[in-house]
Amino acid sequence: xxxxxxxxxxxxxxxxxxxxxxxxxxxxxxxxxxxxxxxxxxxxxxxxxxxxxxxxxxxxxxxxxxxxxxxxxxxxxxxxxxxxxxxxxxxxxxxxxxxxxxxxxxxxxxxxxxxxxxxxxxxxxxxxxxxxxxxxxxxxxxxxxxxxxxxxxxxxxxxxxxxxxxxxxxxxxxxxxxxxxxxxxxxxxxxxxxxxxxxxxxxxxxxxxxxxxxxxxxxxxxxxxxxxxxxxxxxxxxxxxxxxxxxxxxxxxxxxxxxxxxxxxxxxxxxxxxxxxxxxxxxxxxxxxxxxxxxxxxxxxxxxxxxxxxxxxxxxxxxxxxxxxxxxxxxxxxxxxxxxxxxxxxxxxxxxxxxxxxxxxxxxxxxxxxxxxxxxxxxxxxxxxxxxxxxx
Length: 392
Known about the structure:
The protein has helices spanning 7-23, 36-52, 70-83, 91-104, 107-118, 233-250, 252-267, 279-307, 313-338, 340-343, 356-367, 374-386; strands at residues 124-127, 143-147, 150-161, 168-174, 185-191, 197-202, 211-222, 226-227, 269-270, 273-274. By secondary structure, the chain is of the alpha+beta class. The protein has three domains: 7-89, Butyryl-Coa Dehydrogenase, subunit A, domain 1, CATH 1.10.540; 125-230, Butyryl-CoA Dehydrogenase, subunit A, domain 2 (Beta Barrel), CATH 2.40.110.10; 251-386, Butyryl-CoA Dehydrogenase, subunit A, domain 3 (Up-down Bundle), CATH 1.20.140.10.
């Protein structure tokens, strides 16, 4: 891939950068997505991006996208991260479900759901993990029985991101217990307002509740909301996971955190010197910058494969693994560099950056688990990418 941008790509980057400088809304560095007063401004921000032509950039025009090449979406993502733009309320649909429907959904499903994902009219959550089906997703037990024109769903899902504000869920359910584990699973689109659904937010270590437990009791789901065919959910799920893992590596976290770390290292002093002037810390920062650049270049290689029609496969897993590990390394370095003040909570007067680095450290651990743990990613990369034998 030629890493030199074309004149058109340069113009596009300047355009989004100038637009963000003029339109970026005021928002805290740490957004509390559970606050009711966050929801409508977040919807408005997503729609403003859409009106400006900077949302769903590479999606087909007939479904509400911009119809541009994938490189332009990468440019938008990079500039949004550099500007510190607020997260999108519809990110679960934009980053995972939307691309999945474009590949696996019926024409009716694409026209019904994708435009509302883009406009944030419908907010989505993911229903994959269960109490006994986290890392081993194929062991899920939530079941769906086809009765006439509807599936009847019973079971429980854990770690559903922002389920308490979601309108709909894309979920894996077991539709044939007699088949081998991976072959009896289906992929359903579920209305979160349907009778029989209970959502219980889960309190995290940082006091927030971004995830929820969702239970289903005789929940009816229309047959036309089955994606990819009956008992073909594992194939559809792999499409979703490839998008999720790739986006978790390409996400704004490390790209936004590194300049913040650099800024703090120039400002915070120890022994009369700025931290950036202390050789040990300067070396640590240099190593992190090298990791970030390596991840960026690998992400471009992944983009090249996508543009040539090749599935993400192991490349997406490497992106996810490297991105989540880098996010943790950045936060851990900050905690070491800034010492006790970095450990204080945002409510304490002497807290550095209002407790942002302690928050980053805790959330970085979650990203090492979400979308497949780092340990599992390493195993899959070793087996599928390097041809090594299965772990015993």
